Amino acid sequence: MAAGKRESLSANDWTAAALDALARGGLGAIAVEPLAKALGATKGSFYWHFADRNALIAAALERWEQRDTERVIATTDQAPEVATRLRNLLRLVFTAVLGDTGTGSVELALQATATHPLVAPTLARVTERRLDYLTSLFTELGLSRARARDRGLLAYAAFLGHAQLMHSTPALVPTGRALSGHIDRLIETLTTIED
Fold first, then answer.
1. What does each C-alpha distance from 91 to 61, 171, 183 come to in angstroms?
2. Could you tell me which residues come within 8 angstroms of residue 93 by beta carbon, excluding any fewer than 6 positions away?
3. Which of 35, 67, 131, 172 has the most neighbouring CB atoms within 10 Å?
């Protein structure tokens, strides 16, 4: 980009910036003026793409759902064996919560605003989709539907708890190789199926 000349921003640019803001500062951080300043744009650019802040929030939520649920499931499904798919999924989500703008940060920001009229239906749909997917994996491993649902719920609760620990008290979570070992034990505990 030449000095003094700026490329036009797309709706995708605004949506990505909104999702980053959500991860860093929660739903309240999705505000037109600060985002425009961060993007080096005018509010007019925003209104070219979105009717209002709620439209941007809706777009950010859709992007989050696609990125952190549908794409994760599609990637996980590439492994041929169910046990490998499940372990890969758990490793991916437990390591994705590392960092200030990772999956865990968005997840926790949305949990904190779970009653917001735009967040509530999205969070409910995503949670149900994730639980259904986990249930299907545990069912393929041989658990009854009820036990598979229970194990899926346990795995999902472990993910949310791990994200919360990484966010609120990271000093309590192991680091480096110890973190890798911790995640290995977590995955082993969640995937061991007793007869």
1. 24, 20, 7
2. 72, 103, 159
3. 35
**Are 150 and 111 contacting, i.e. CB atoms less than 8 angstroms apart?**
no
CA–CA dist 109, 81 (Å, integer): 34
Asked whether 68 and 127 are in contact (CB, 8 A), the reply is: no
Q: What is the DSSP string of 68-81?
A: IIIHHHHHHTTSSS
Q: What is the rounded distance in angstroms from the CA atom of residue 88 to the CA atom of residue 125?
A: 23
CB distance 105 to 167 below 8 Å: yes
d(CA 114, CA 111): 5
**Mean pLDDT of all residues belonging to the chain:** 92
165-170-172 Cα angle (round to 5):
80
pLDDT per residue over 122-143, tens digit each? 999 999 999 999 999 999 999 9
110 alpha carbon, distance to own chain's centre: 9
What does the pLDDT read at residue 194?
79
| pLDDT attached to residue 55 | 98
Helix, strand and coil percent figures for the chain, each rounded to 5 = 75, 0, 25
